Amino acid sequence: MTQPSDVVVVEAVRTPIGRGHPDKGVFRNLHPHDLLGAVYTAVLDRAGVDPLEVGQVLTGCVQQIGEQGANVARNAWLHAGLPVEVPASTVDTQCGASQQAVNLAAALIASGAQDVVIAAGVEHMGHLPFAAGVRVQVEYGDAITPQIMGRHGLIKAHNLVGQGLSAERIATTWGLSRARLEEWALRSHQRADAATRAGAFAREILPVKAGGKVHNTDQGIRPDTTAESLAALPPVFADNGRLTAGTSSQTSDGASAVLLMSAARARALGVRARARVRDHALQGDDPLMMLTAPIPLTRRMLQRNRMVIEDLDIIEINEAFASVVGAWLAELRPDPERVNPRGGAIALGHPLGASGARLITTLLHEMEDLDAELGFLTMCCAGGLATGTLIERI
Questions:
Q1: Can you tell me the mean pLDDT for 157-174?
Q2: Mean of the pLDDT values across residues 123-140?
């Protein structure tokens, strides 16, 4: 049986992130299968691995309806012309879906059940916007909507609110001013723009042709963002609230894929192992605050690995909202220079189901470029969850 320390990452790739806008998004005329199939193929081609080596494919996706319904993982695999013998299934841990796909892939390999697994993610929010599933329920019955949550006592039991209001509660609880949140958002755009201009994303991005043009940069970065432009935006979740569109992640389109193997299989195939999966976790927390679970998750993972926050060379935390990052920073107190060094979802975008594997991809390349040893990723997820992954460069 393979041991957890023997799970290695051999390749990781992502598409550029497009705006999730039905008219302005660069991928508006592409199907989710096109984006996902492209990264499936690319992650294998770049590693020089035969698709038949893959024992299983796990793909994160949040809006699993319409174009992304009926097991998008499998459909995109077949759409790409890849071997029918390879099974694929779709994972939903909300925003952490593809990070959880990476973690489940690592667990499968660690258990000895598989030797080679692709963990991927996709979301096309230009075609299927956030909460698109709720619209379907008008005809076919309630999903996890306020109606069914109220019927089963969930709202009453936990006093649940929407994510935006949870983000506002976090800002209030941790005393995060609007100006402080906007400082982080400005930093995200500045760092993402600087990284793009320096070509720092070039190795991880798979250029994608759409609309007669090849796209190789992220569409959502706004180099002209200023403190003044952020301060001029109206609150979006509460009257006199602290959060605006500028301090929230962008709705986006994109796909990402990570190729994991047992170290033994990588050696047998002559494939270079680039990083080792040291640990991974899924954490629950207060569903009312909803987005605070990265805090206990980080503490738990540090404790069981006998580490302190200073041991982590690079940290990626998903910028769902600036207040999520602000609260985590206040509690864990890392060196901010080590956190999201190339910007985050506020600037780059947040294609829900694709973001976790995208962040792993970015983290791996950051570690190689900056000669870092340990990298950590955490994401908040709807329902009061968080995903976490600790990787060590080889």
A1: 83
A2: 72
Alpha helices in 174-321 (DSSP H): 178-197, 227-231, 263-269, 294-304
Cα separation of 202 and 207, whole Å?
Answer: 9
Domains along the chain with CATH numbers: 1-130+148-394 (3.40.47.10)
pLDDT over 70 at 142, yes or no? no
**Which residue do the tokens 């994401």 mark?**
379
26 and 272 Cβ atoms separated by less than 8 Å: no
Q: How far apart are CA 263 and CA 272, in angstroms?
A: 9
pLDDT band at 162 (very low <50, low <70, confident <90, very high): confident
At 153, is the pLDDT very low, low, confident or very high (cuts 50, 70, 90)? low
| Residues noted as catalytic | 95, 350, 380
Q: Taking Cα atoms as reference points, which of 362, 354, 380, 381 lies closest to residue 125? A: 354
Which residue bears the tokens 């180099």?
223
Q: How far is CA 251 from CA 219, 240, 350, 358, in A?
A: 11, 23, 6, 15
Q: Rg of the chain over CA atoms, in angstroms?
A: 20
**pLDDT over 90 (residue 200):** yes
Q: In 3D, which of 271, 294, 262, 297 has the Cα closest to residue 107?
A: 262
Residue pointed to by tokens 């991928």? 27
Is beta strand 116-124 parallel, antiparallel or unpaired with respect to 252-262?
antiparallel
Strand partners, 120: 59, 257
Q: What are phi and psi of 193, to 5 degrees?
A: -65, -45
DSSP secondary structure of 12-75: EEEPPPEE--TTT-TTTTS-HHHHHHHHHHHHHHHHT--GGG--EEEEE-S--SGGGTTTHHHH
Q: In angstroms, rounded to a whole number, what is the distance separating the alpha carbons of residues 179 and 171?
A: 11
- Torsion, CA 208, CA 211, CA 214, CA 219, rounded to 10: -80
CB 253 within 8 A of CB 218: no
Among 302, 306, 285, 304, CA closest to 294: 285
